[in-house]
Amino acid sequence: MKRIALLVLLVVFFTMPLVPHTVPAQGFGLQEGDDIGLVLPGEARVAEAAEAENAPSPGSALVLAAPGRVDVGQPFLVRLTSDQPLGSVSVFWLGKEVVPSISVWNGRHVALIMLGTDVLNAKPGEEELSVIASIDGKENTFRRTIQVIPGEYERQELTLPKKMVTPPTDVYARIKAEGEQTTAAKNTVSPQRMWRLPFERPVTGDISSLYGMQRILNGKPKNPHRGLDFRSPMGNPIKCAADGEVILVGDHYYAGNSVYVDHGNGVVSMYFHLSKPIVKEGDRVQRGQAIGFSGMSGRATGPHLHFSVSVLGRLVDPGPLLNKTVDEMLE
Question: Which pLDDT value is given to residue 60?
Answer without folding.
Answer: 57
